[in-house]
Recover the amino acids of this structure.
């Protein structure tokens, strides 16, 4: 099938980073310009950019921008390193759950350490090159995941049948440097005419499905319809869902997977109706230092995200609310994890280690 134009989440011009302001989609497409690492921090914290891989790439460029910000005239190398350390600490505090954030920042720390004997201008160039490499690698990784995803989905209804797929939150180009993880698999299937329909969970409270995933699918002319989150069971019971594909913000070493709040519930429904449930995520999302999902830190966000929808208040201030941003899908509910290095099948805890070798 002929697809529309690919979504470009971020644009780097060598000095500044432009990010699609995802808070304003789908009604307005507007870019937020980051010309300081402080603005990069705001972009990540305030969800101008979101999605674990996109956060990682953005943070890498945040370090690059910090390096460019530093005026090394009459400055010592120690003050340069101190400035970068301050910037990295600030960026690291923006979102606690997405492991790609820390993975990218640790990569930049290593580059700084390995090149500490070079001149400041040379170190700056190394930092910029590494950030650009992280972006390039992310797109390549997503396309590899797309290919493995097609292979994984062959087992669902065979190669000759079109699929009805449910997805939760947004794991597309908007959540990555480009192409997407879960939505990247869907893109790859659409390219070979294997998509019948995409069922898009709206994903309360931030509506990443209704606002972002649906917008991406519309841009690329992939068939879809939106449902409220509490319609998923009904759709599954009526045969409207052949498979579920979601992304992940952090995967524990046993295969437990943290993703946007509501994902765990979808996995329980899928298991009840015997529907395959796939997680698509780069290996950088796997955190081998964490034994199980119970050890993954869960971010609680501002209560106004629940009290308001697109700026309109629906719950008064005197009523208490909770807003955990993620939940953890147990490994036993996951059919397979699709990565750029292959399909990880059960037993997940054993095969994760094999893939990472």
């Amino acid at each position: 099938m002929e697809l529309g134009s690919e979504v470009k989440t971020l644009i780097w011009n060598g000095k500044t980073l432009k990010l699609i302001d995802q808070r304003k989609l789908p009604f307005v497409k507007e870019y937020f310009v980051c010309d300081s690492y402080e603005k990069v921090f705001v972009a990540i914290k305030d969800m101008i950019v979101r999605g674990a891989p996109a956060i990682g790439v953005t943070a890498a460029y945040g370090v690059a921008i910090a390096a460019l910000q530093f005026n090394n005239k009459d400055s010592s190398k120690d003050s340069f390193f101190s400035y970068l350390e301050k910037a990295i600490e600030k960026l690291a505090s923006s979102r606690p759950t997405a492991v790609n954030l820390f993975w990218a920042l640790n990569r930049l720390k290593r580059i700084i350490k390995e090149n500490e004997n070079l001149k400041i201008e040379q170190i700056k160039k190394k930092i910029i090159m590494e950030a650009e490499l992280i972006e390039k690698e992310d797109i390549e990784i997503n396309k590899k995941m797309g290919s493995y995803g097609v292979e994984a989905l062959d087992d669902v209804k065979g190669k000759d049948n079109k699929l009805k797929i449910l997805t939760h939150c947004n794991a597309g180009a908007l959540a990555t440097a480009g192409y997407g993880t879960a939505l990247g698999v869907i893109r790859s299937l659409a390219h070979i005419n294997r998509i019948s329909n995409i069922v898009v969970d709206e994903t309360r409270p931030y509506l990443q499905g209704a606002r972002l995933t649906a917008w991406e699918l519309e841009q690329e002319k992939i068939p879809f319809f939106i449902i409220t989150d509490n319609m998923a069971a009904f759709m599954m019971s009526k045969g409207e869902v052949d498979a579920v594909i979601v992304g992940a913000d952090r995967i524990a070493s046993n295969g437990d997977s943290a993703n946007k709040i509501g994902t765990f519930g979808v996995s329980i429904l899928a298991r009840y109706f015997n529907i395959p449930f796939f997680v698509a995520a780069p290996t950088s999302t796997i955190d081998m230092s964490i034994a199980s999902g119970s050890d993954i830190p869960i971010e609680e966000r501002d209560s106004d995200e629940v009290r308001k929808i697109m700026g309109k208040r629906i719950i008064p201030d005197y009523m208490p609310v909770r807003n955990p941003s993620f939940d953890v899908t147990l490994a036993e509910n996951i059919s397979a994890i699709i990565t750029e290095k292959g399909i990880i099948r059960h037993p997940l805890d054993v095969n994760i280690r094999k893939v990472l070798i």
Q: What stands out?
A: The chain is about 40% helix and 15% strand. The CA atoms of residues 42 and 179 lie 24 Å apart. The first helix runs from residue 37 to 45. The radius of gyration is 20 Å.
